[in-house]
Design brief:
There is one protein chain. The protein has helices at residues 17-40, 42-49, 53-72, 74-81, 83-103, 107-121, 124-131, 139-169, 174-191, 209-232, 237-260, 270-273, 277-307, 312-323, 325-336, 344-361, 370-396, 404-445, 453-467, 472-515, and strands spanning 2-6, 9-12. With 521 residues, the protein is an all-alpha fold. The protein folds into two domains: 1-204, MFS general substrate transporter like domains (Growth Hormone, Chain: A, Up-down Bundle), CATH 1.20.1250; 289-521, no CATH class. It has a two-stranded antiparallel ribbon. The longest helix has 44 residues, at 472-515.
Length: 521
């Protein structure tokens, strides 16, 4: 079923290469359907579980911390278990976590299930990318890369649609039914194509429990401090700062241990992979992209729902439709990049797209139409992700591909960064939304006074409408409540405009930086 290509390298037999491609595609599908559906549905999910955003932040911080640790151990586990056993074990753990979430009826049960899912599914993306290296060099490996990329883009665009439909027409628990079904499919395809022979002892990476404890502690404390700071920073600033400092100190200890032991066989070859200038630049681009993606995944649904009043189903449908531009962008990238592999034009185009997206969305108004205005903006946003990340992925690892261990460690570290950056993006955007909404609400509220003739006129008009059905006293109270709700809605919309204006300037700065580069690959 598998044949030996070289020492310690195994590839699927030609008759099973399509199964390898199917496994790679399904791993990406499970990974991003999981991330996309739960991220998009965070607000209604909190309502179903009856928890506050502050309590829910515990689950996201715990999942990200577990994910970072799991990803760091991927190569270590594969060297001892083999790819087939590793993928099957990960799928089994992920399946169990999904099943716990499906049966959960309160937040505690959901938290346990979500953390278990993190143990199993966090390394699917890095695993799928490294599996491509098991394919022979040539057209079949290029097919593996395309399969990997299309799995990513299709699942990202599909996630909001599925989440919205399930919440409206079925039950939120059914999210995990879909994930369990795909788990079974991946397990079947993986059973027939993945190698089951572990690497030999002398090439195995080494790990230490104290180092892992430092990584786990640093991940959780840092992310939890960022998430909790969204709600408690001003009331518990000293405590939040101490937690953040402890988390960053633990991170420093982990990285220092990896660099100090570079001459041995460390868990991650930090010094070796960061010796590549291309990789360092690529990690910076990835961090920027995932930070923007995390913040936008939180901001956009909030602004569309609470700022513009669109229904959750409407947002999910049009958001998913707009993100299909990622599939088109990937097709364009795959056609042009092999013939003209200079990365500068793609980086410039990517930053231009995020700047244009920010410019368009910064001009939102209460009368903005979803189909004719917001949808084109989301389409532009989809192009940004593909052109920046796709180019960075093609260029960042080119100097490390000759060394399987270094390439694996580079992929693992990149995915650890993605987990941290997305969580940071969500946390910082939560803080920004709360802050800017409060600022704008206080400013608008200064105009809600009896001395303001515009306010008095609006209050009288609304009260007149309510007075047709209730008493005049109740009508005045209801009119005041309506105006206060409108002020809050306008505050959220203005906060969103501030965020999209920031994205506009990020796009401009990124475009200028890339433009002045004399030589950029």
């Amino acid at each position: 079923m598998i044949k030996r290509l070289a020492q310690h390298k195994y590839v699927p037999a030609p008759s099973h290469e399509w199964l390898m491609l199917a496994t790679i595609f399904l791993l990406m599908l499970v990974n991003f359907l999981n991330v996309g559906m739960i991220a998009f549905a965070a607000s209604p999910l909190m309502g179903e579980l009856g928890v506050s955003p502050q309590e829910y932040s515990l689950s996201t911080a715990a999942y990200a911390a577990v994910a970072v640790v799991t990803i760091s151990k991927q190569r270590w586990l594969v060297e001892r278990m083999g790819w087939r056993n590793y993928i099957h074990s990960s799928l089994l753990i992920f399946f169990i976590g999904c099943f716990i979430c499906y049966l959960s009826r309160n937040f505690s049960q959901f938290l346990i299930g979500h953390v278990v899912m993190g143990f199993g599914g966090a390394a699917f993306m890095a695993g799928a990318r490294i599996l491509i290296t098991l394919l022979p060099v040539g057209p079949i490996r290029f097919k593996g890369i395309k399969t990997y990329a299309y799995g990513l883009t299709i699942s990202i665009s599909l996630a909001p649609f599925l989440a919205a439909q399930l919440f409206i027409n079925a039950s939120w628990n059914d999210i995990f039914i879909i994930l369990m079904i795909f788990c079974v499919l991946v397990a079947i395809t993986a059973a027939f194509c993945l190698p089951g022979i572990p690497s030999k002892d002398e090439i195995r990476s080494q790990s230490h429990p104290y180092v892992l404890m430092a990584l786990a502690t640093g991940s959780f404390l840092t992310l939890y401090a960022l998430r909790s700071g969204t709600y408690d920073f001003y009331s518990n600033s000293i405590l939040i700062s101490v937690i953040l400092l402890l988390g960053l100190t633990s991170f420093y200890y982990f990285l220092r241990s990896m660099v100090k032991n570079h001459h041995k066989t460390p868990l991650l070859s930090i010094k070796q992979i960061f010796g590549s200038k291309r990789y360092r630049t690529g990690i910076l681009v990835f961090f920027t992209c995932y930070l923007i993606m995390g913040s936008n995944s939180y901001f956009l649904p909030q602004i569309l729902q609470k700022g513009l009043g669109f229904g959750w189903g409407t947002i999910g449908n049009w958001y998913a439709l707009g993100l299909t531009s990622m599939i088109l962008g990937l097709w364009i990238h795959m056609k042009i990049f092999p013939k003209r592999p200079d990365g500068k034009k793609f980086f410039m185009l990517g930053f231009f797209c995020i700047g244009l997206y920010g410019f368009l969305m910064s001009r939102l108004s209460p009368s903005t139409d979803m189909q004719t205005y917001i949808l084109p903006a989301i389409i532009v946003y989809g192009f940004f992700s593909v052109f920046l990340q796709g180019t960075a992925a093609a260029k960042s690892f080119s100097e490390l591909e000759h060394d399987d261990t270094a390439f694996s460690h580079a992929q693992q570290f990149k995915n650890m960064v993605s987990q941290i950056a997305q969580s940071m993006g969500i946390a910082l955007s939560s803080i920004a939304l709360q802050w800017r909404t409060t600022v704008h609400y206080n400013e608008l509220n200064t105009h809600i006074t009896n001395s303001n003739p515009i306010y008095q006129k609006a209050l009288a008009q609304v009260a007149t409408q309510y007075a047709q059905h209730v008493s005049s006293v109740s009508a005045n109270k209801m009119a005041l409540g309506w105006i206060q709700g409108l002020v809050k809605q306008q505050s959220i919309l203005l906060a969103g405009i501030d965020y999209f204006t920031l994205l506009f300037f990020v796009g401009i700065i990124g475009f200028v930086v890339m433009f002045i580069q004399k030589r950029l690959n």
